[in-house]
Amino acid sequence: MDALPNNLPTNPSGNAPADDATKNQVASLTAAQLRDIKAQLDLVLMALEALTHIGSESVLETAKTLQLENILSDRVGLWRLRQSSPLRKGQGRKKLDVEEARALVLVICRLSAAHHEKVRQAVATLEQSTQQGEPPHRAAILGDYLDNFSNLYSDRMSEEALLPHPAAPTQNTTIQNTVAQNTATQSTANQTLTQLSFRLLIDLLFYSAPNGERQLWLALLDRAVQ
C-alpha cells in the first residue's frame, strides 16, 4: 500500500523532509479548515474530470489500486464525500476527516500522473496562446476543457460559490441600469470561472509530477491556514 502523505515537505519542491510544525498543522486542522480542504480537493478533481473525461469508476479503480477501498469503496460513498463540499448545491452533511483527505490526495495525484502528457500538452498550449495573445479557448484542447469545466461547475456548484450578489436597485436605478449591472456581474463571474479553471489546470501539472501528492497536500494546508 502506498504510504499516506504524513511526511510533508516544508516547501513546494517536495525535497525537504517534514518538520514538526507541518505535522502539527495536520493534527490541529479545524472543522472550517477541513471544509476548505474538501472544497479544494473537489475542484481539483473536477478539473481533472473536465480535461481527461474520467468518471467515478476511474477514481474508485485507482483507490483500489492504492489499497484505499476501505475509504473510497463505492460510487455512493464517493458522491457523498464530494457532495460535502461547501461549494456544492444542496451540500450534504458528510464531514471530511484527515484520512479521507489524504486518500483523495493520493488518488488525484495518481490519476494526474496517469494523464501527465495530456496535462502537459494543455498547459503548454495555454502558455503558447498567452504568449501569442490569442484567446485560449480557440485551441481545441483548451476549448474542450473550458466547456467541460464550465458545465460541470454549473451543474454541481452553488451560484453563491462564484457569483457576487448584485447590488439591490435604488429608487433612482433604472431597469436598464439593473440589467447592465447583472450582465456585468455575469461577465465577471465568467472571467473568474475561466481564471479558476486555468489555475487548476496549471496546478495539475505539478500534481502529476513525482512527489505530486506532497505538493498538493502542502498547497491544501497553506490555503487552509491562511
Automatic annotation (TrEMBL):
Domain of life, per lineage: Bacteria
InterPro entries in alphabetical order: DUF3038
Stretches the record annotates as Disordered: 1-24
One Pfam family cited in the UniProt record for this chain: DUF3038
Protein name: DUF3038 domain-containing protein
